[in-house]
């Protein structure tokens, strides 16, 4: 049986503490607190999709920070953020390949009957729920634009 995300995080928290791995410890604590906050806001236990959404948000925030650190020439912080991103990705489902996303986009285009770039939003609305947490929105957006043009 698959371990619940919370149990996995608790195990990893203990492991990180024993290993004196500060980065992993901070990331796992931050994920646990983000999930707890989301659970409190929702007023119920989070579904797997809701957990993935919270983790995706955490990943996105770290990727944005990485961009800022790189622009600002702070390689030390960029390296640490890269490690954090790797840790967060461990808890997310395997990302879809461009080919898999492309197939979902093709399916959405045919089901919505979109024929031009003007219907970009319509196609995105059909695709995003299917790839939530499994594909980067920028990749999806690029593929939809390519296929509509």
UniProtKB/TrEMBL annotation:
InterPro entries hit by this protein: Asn/Gln_tRNA_amidoTrase-B-like, GatB_Yqey_C_2, YqeY/Aim41, YqeY/Aim41_N
Pfam families associated with the record: YqeY
GO MF terms, alphabetically ordered: carbon-nitrogen ligase activity, with glutamine as amido-N-donor
Top-level taxon of the source organism: Bacteria
Entry protein name: GatB YqeY domain-containing protein
UniProt source species: Lacticaseibacillus pantheris DSM 15945 = JCM 12539 = NBRC 106106
């Amino acid at each position: 049986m698959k371990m619940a995300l919370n149990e996995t995080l608790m195990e990893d928290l203990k492991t990180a503490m024993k290993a004196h791995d500060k980065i992993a410890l901070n990331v796992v604590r931050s994920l646990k607190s983000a999930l707890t906050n989301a659970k409190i806001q929702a007023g119920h236990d989070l579904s797997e999709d809701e957990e993935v959404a919270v983790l995706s948000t955490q990943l996105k925030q770290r990727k944005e920070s990485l961009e800022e650190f790189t622009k600002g020439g702070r390689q030390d912080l960029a390296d640490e953020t890269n490690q954090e991103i790797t840790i967060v990705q461990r808890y997310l489902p395997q990302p879809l390949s461009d080919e898999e996303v492309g197939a979902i986009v093709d399916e959405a285009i045919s089901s919505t009957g979109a024929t031009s770039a003007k219907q970009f939003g319509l196609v995105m609305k059909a695709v995003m729920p299917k790839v939530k947490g499994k594909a980067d929105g920028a990749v999806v957006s690029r593929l939809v634009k390519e296929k509509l043009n």
